[in-house]
Amino acid sequence: MTAPAHAGAPTVNEVVADRSFFGHPRGLRTLFAVEMWERFSYYGLRPLLILFMTAAIASNGFGLDRTTAGAVVGIYAAGVYLATLPGGWIADRWLGLQRAVWWGAVIIACGHLSIALSALFEKKAFFLGLVLIVIGTGLLKGNISAIVGDLYPEGGARRDSGFAVYYMGINVGATLGQLVTGYLGEKVGWHLGFGAAGVGMLIGLITFRIWARRTLGPIGTTVSVSASETAKARKVTLAAAAAVVLVILAGMAGLYSVNPVAIAEYSTNAIIGLALAYFAYLFIFGKLDSDERKRVAVIALLFVGAAAFWAAFEQAPTSLNLFARDFTDRHVFGYEIPATWMQSVNSIFVVSLAPVFAALWLALARRGISPSSPTKFMAGLIFCGIAFYMMLIPADIVIASGGVAKVSIWWLTISYLLQTVGELSLSPVGLSSMTKLAPRRFTGQMMGVWFMAAALGNLIAGLVGGSIDPEKLDLMPKLFSRTAISLFVVAGVFAVLIIPIRNMMKTSSAVDH
Ligand code: GLN
Question: Taking the model in full, what pTM does it have?
Answer without folding.
Answer: 0.84
